[in-house]
Specification:
The protein has 17 helices and ten strands. It is of the alpha/beta class and 431 residues long. It folds into three domains: 3-152, Beta Polymerase, domain 2, CATH 3.30.460; 162-305, NAD(P)-binding Rossmann-like Domain (Rossmann fold); 333-361 and 383-388 and 399-423, no CATH class. Helix 6 packs antiparallel against helix 7 (134-152).
Length: 431
């Protein structure tokens, strides 16, 4: 397939590196178009979440310089990227995609959000025409694999989540969440989930601020809370004990001076900031203010890792499924490579059969319907027996390195060279 995957994630790059590679949702279609037009790229997909930025591409002869694209797009030197990059090809790229979709490569193993993010990336890539044939086949299979992992293992059951960890951290800071006030800055899914967990554990009121005020109103209504205009966050944020922020802003919106101002208004009562954004919404300097507790996405990862040991066996079962599915996908790809030859052989022999029936029909005289069926069955039976050995040989060879040799031999034996030219280079080349 000439498949390449390059990227960084929460295990290879700290948040200060990942935030430099973040692509806002509004810019993703244009980034995809540029990647699809990059020399050597035939099809492409970009997956960008708070924990990873990955480029997946089907390339021409495996020659595309995806590393060069990343550096040029983000204006980064190789020395800034190379220590954090992973670069996978062919089966290893397939395995990685399957693991990502199945949430085995997530910060929180088994969490459900990543599958939705992969599907959104796929939908965007299809919308701009960056995915059309073989990547479409691969991604569709990745979704099926993720479903199988979730169905056949308990890796996603009772999953420790960022939201549940945030609740535990908040309890440690405040002792109890009863009566505490929560402020959402940004209205993302993870922020909403964290707020829901906090409210379920006793948090009192919910404030929601978002750049689109109507969205803030809608989300606040779900929590019976209060919507705040984004321009008012610095005037109202001190009312909250817990601030969950995830805005997608290119620079920090909360700085040390804001923390000092909030504490002054709160008469030094502590505040807890859960910063889920990448790039980060809260300047790390704010954590130096006494009474301000800031946890970014990497801090939450460390807390999550303490809770996942008991799911190791389920994860191992899921890995076995992934291994099986990678082999199946590779076998399917190899089989697809011989399909055009099998179709050409069937067409070729069917043409001969029909021509021979037409040639002798005049000598046979009038045939009853039963005789017509007998001639049809006889000639089809002969053709099927002739085809059986070459087709079986082609399908067997598809799993080995000798596939190309066998395909060429069958084409020469049955004079299929012209048909090969007409049929194109295989199923992966259709529009």
């Amino acid at each position: 397939m000439n498949l390449q995957l390059i990227g960084v994630n929460h295990t290879t790059a700290p948040v200060e590196v990942r935030e430099r590679l973040a692509i806002p949702e509004s810019r993703l279609p244009e980034a995809l178009r540029q990647l699809a037009q990059h020399p050597g790229v035939e099809e492409a997909l970009i997956l960008c979440t708070c924990n990873r930025v990955e480029l997946l591409a089907r390339t021409r002869n495996g020659s595309a310089d995806l590393r060069g694209f990343l550096g040029a797009y983000f204006h980064l030197e190789p020395a800034q990227l190379d220590p954090h990059l992973y670069h996978l090809r062919e089966n290893e790229a397939v395995r990685h995609l399957f693991r990502v979709a199945a949430s085995l490569d997530s910060m929180v193993v088994g969490e459900a959000q990543i599958l939705g993010q992969v599907k959104e990336a796929y939908a965007t890539a299809r919308a701009v025409g960056a995915v059309n044939s073989q990547l479409d086949l691969l991604l569709t299979r990745a979704f099926a694999v993720a479903k199988r992992v979730r169905t056949e293992t308990a890796v996603g059951s009772s999953a420790v989540s960022i939201a549940s960890v945030a609740v535990e951290l908040a309890k440690k800071i405040f002792g109890t969440l009863q009566g505490k006030h929560v402020y959402l800055v940004g209205a993302g899914k993870m922020s909403e989930l964290a707020a829901r967990h906090l409210q379920a554990h006793g948090a009192a009121s919910i404030f929601v601020a978002n750049r689109t005020y109507e969205r803030a109103v809608q989300l606040a209504a779900r929590f019976h809370g209060e919507a705040i205009r984004f321009s008012e966050i610095y005037n109202t944020c001190d009312q909250a004990d817990i601030v969950i922020t995830s805005t997608g802003a290119p620079v920090a919106i909360f700085r040390r001076s804001h923390g000092e101002m909030f504490l002054s208004r709160r008469k030094n009562r502590p505040m807890f900031f859960i910063d889920i954004a990448v790039p980060r919404d809260v300047d790390p300097e704010m954590n130096k203010v006494d009474g301000i507790f800031v946890y970014d996405i990497d801090d939450l990862q460390q807390a999550v890792s303490l809770h996942v040991a008991d799911r190791k066996k389920e994860a191992e079962r899921a890995e076995e499924i992934i291994n099986t599915e990678v082999e199946r996908f590779q076998s399917r790809l190899q089989t697809l490579e011989v399909v055009p030859t099998i179709v050409s052989l069937q067409d070729h022999l069917e043409t001969i059969r029909q021509a021979e029936i037409d040639r002798v029909r005049g000598r046979l005289g009038p045939l009853s319907p039963e005789q017509e069926l007998a001639v049809e069955a006889l000639t089809r039976g002969i053709i099927n027996k002739i085809m059986h050995t070459p087709i079986s040989t082609l399908k067997t060879a598809a799993r080995d390195s000798e596939a190309t040799t066998v395909v060429d031999l069958v084409r020469r034996l049955f004079n299929l060279q012209d048909r090969k030219a007409k049929s194109g280079s295989g199923p992966g080349e259709r529009g």
